[in-house]
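Hey L., structure's done. Input below.
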Amino acid sequence: MVSGYDGLPGGVAVSHLSVYDWPATDGVCGGTPHMHLTCSEAYVVTGGRGAVQTLTTSGYEVTPLAPGTVAWFTPGTIHRLVNEDDLRITVLMQNNGLPEAGDAVLTLPPEYLTDPETYAAATRIPVDEPEAEQERVARARRDLALEGYRALRDASGPEPLAAFHRAAAALVRPRLAEWRARWERGASAAAAATGEQLGRLERGDVSHLADAVVRAQEPSAYGKFGMCGRLDVYKGD
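Output:
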């Protein structure tokens, strides 16, 4: 039943992020620049200090991040987290955590964006390998993405960014049906449940209030190597 939706409000998911303190070739410490295609994402800064660099068709911006800051951005925003002093963030994600479950394309150089297999070979973290090897691969893919990111940031004219958008869309196309199903189970179901509940209240029907439930969950994994840092994550849908 639609009114039985009991996921996090609005189909949002959360993770706790400790941003990488690895220095890059430009001397900046931080994460891997990337873009989401269907999901907005928000940062609730819980500790430390840093910034998020963003690149859109409107240009390049830097948003400072400090405890208490809430910053968010819509699909199509290329973003790079910068860690200036132990930056820690709670990340809010649309669509049951889809941003960490596939809706992201790293800003690799164009030759790595030609097909899903080539892209996956350059970005996959070997979870069955020792932690030191996982870190090596995570750092290597971060630095590779920075090459493409700097080229996009320094480009003259709109075509390089438009070309990245087209390549990213082609990479994710095989997974769109899976993503739609995730959205239907999550954000769409949550919105539909609210609509049904409003309709019931308008009719004087309060029966759904008797079905109230309480849920709680601990992280399902700690310290995963994510795109931007080490992640404590919760079981997603």
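Helices lie at 116-123, 131-154, 159-172, 176-185, 187-202. The CA atoms of residues 37 and 75 lie 5 Å apart.

-- N.
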